[in-house]
Each structure stands twice: as C-alpha cells, then as structure tokens.
Amino acid sequence: QVQLVESGGGLVQPGGSLRLSCAASRTIFSIYAMGWYRQAPGKERELVGGITSVGGRTNYANSVKGRFTISTDNAKNTVYLQMNSLKPEDTAVYYCYATLDGVNYWGKGTLVTVSS
Q1: What is 45-73 written as a DSSP string?
Q2: Rg, C-alpha atoms of the chain
Q3: What span, in angstroms and rounded, lies between the C-alpha atoms of 70 and 75?
C-alpha cells in the first residue's frame, strides 16, 4: 500500500502559476506510475497526466499539454505538478494517484481555484 498527501493548492489569477506536490509514503521506485487527476464542480474526474517511475515517461491530457509539467524528486518520494498559464477552466480539486501492483491509490485532493 501507499499513502499520498497533496499540497500546494490555492487561489491564483488567470495566467498565473501554481505547483502541486504529492508526497508518497514509500519510495516511488517501488510504484509503477504516479500522476494527477482533477474533478471540476459538476463534472467527472479526468486524467491530467502521469509519469512512470522507470524511464520517466509522461503523458498529459490535451487540455493541459504545453502548460502543465509533471516531475519527480526521488529523494523526497514526491511527484510535482507545475501548472503555468492557468485558466478559469482549470479550477478543480486535484487528486494525486499512484499505481502499485495494479491498484490505484488516491490522495484526498487539493483545491485549485483560478479566478480574478
């Protein structure tokens, strides 16, 4: 099993930047992949992007490509989501996930609000 704790959400103006962090309770080398989903009010949860622990392969939703970047700090067992050029439609609760032995684990989420 793995526990995930997100941080870094908040209120930001359109065009601004924010970095989310997700700390895992075990070394991320033991985890197949980690990443982020988001859920906006009244909408289904959607994939933002992910990264594999071996090889560091990333994938992103079309809506965030070129604006969001996922990275890891192996020493801190942490995955990051750098969000730039934020738009009001990026407003959502962002959830960290980890895929371990074919099972997805989830953090509790952190709220990102993009508004002027």
Answers
A1: -EEEEEEETTT--EEE-TTTTTTEEEEEE
A2: 13
A3: 16
Please determine, for residue 53, whether its predicted confidence score (pLDDT) is greater than 90.
Answer: no
What is the average pLDDT across 44-61?
94
Using one digit for the tens of pLDDT, what is the confidence trace for 84-107?
A: 999 999 999 999 999 999 999 999
Long-range contacts, stretch 51-55, CB < 8 angstroms, 24+ apart: 51/79, 53/28, 53/29, 54/29
Q: How far apart are CA 37 and CA 18, in angstroms?
A: 16
Rounded to an integer, what distance in angstroms lies between the CA atom of residue 94 and that of residue 47?
Answer: 10
SS3 4: strand
Letter string b/e over residues 66-89, b meaning 16 or more CB atoms within 10 A of that residue's CB: eebbbebeeeebbbbbebeebeee
The rounded distance, in Å, linking the Cα atoms of 50 and 115 is: 26
Alpha-carbon distance of 48 to 68, in angstroms, equals 9
DSSP annotation of 25 reads S
Cα 27 from Cα 15, distance rounded (Å): 34
